[in-house]
Write a structure and sequence with these properties.
By secondary structure, the chain is mainly α. The chain has one domain. 70% of the residues lie in helices and 0% in strands. This is DUF937 domain-containing protein.
């Protein structure tokens, strides 16, 4: 699910990378999207939903926010491996891309017909399942697009996501 939502931001990522003089913005955007997805998944697997909460908060995410700082190292290391770029370039891309991605979704949450709190409640409820506790296996299966998403029902969340991008 998360990868499908990040696909919606690929165009803006390409534009951002072209503005940063990346030689191949399209393939770089794909690598960047994968790196962000992987970093957020890593956080979720530990039970830390702060990146997902921030992504759907509807509030402006500052480039120096704790969530950005937490994700930036993983994303930049992944970009170094995937794109073969310098640490400085990777840090610059991550520093620009992370707030852009989170704010991309925050803007859509603000533009949605539902109240921000309703959207956040739906996201968190879907991520936690019926028990109110995070089942990491179910969560990762659902977020990674597994067919057996376990006990979590993210269909409603996906419908919500579709509504955000009309």
């Amino acid at each position: 699910m998360l990868d499908q939502l990040l696909n919606l931001a690929e165009g803006p990522l390409e534009e951002m990378l072209a503005g940063m003089n990346q030689q191949s913005p399209k393939s770089s955007a794909g690598a960047l999207k994968e790196s962000i997805f992987s970093s957020i998944q890593k956080e979720i697997s530990t039970g830390d939903l702060s990146a997902v909460k921030e992504m759907f908060s509807g509030s402006e995410t500052s480039p120096d926010s704790p969530v950005i700082n937490k994700l930036q190292g993983d994303v930049s290391n992944s970009l170094i491996d995937k794109l073969g770029i310098s640490k400085e370039q990777a840090m610059g891309i991550a520093a620009a891309a992370l707030p852009m991605i989170l704010n991309f979704f925050n803007k859509r949450v603000n533009d949605a017909p539902q109240d921000n709190e309703d959207i956040m409640s739906s996201v968190i409820s879907s991520l936690q399942g019926n028990s109110g506790k995070i089942n990491t296996g179910d969560l990762l299966g659902s977020l990674m697009g597994g067919k057996n998403g376990g006990g979590m029902d993210l269909g409603g969340l996906m419908d919500l996501g579709k509504g955000l991008f009309k």
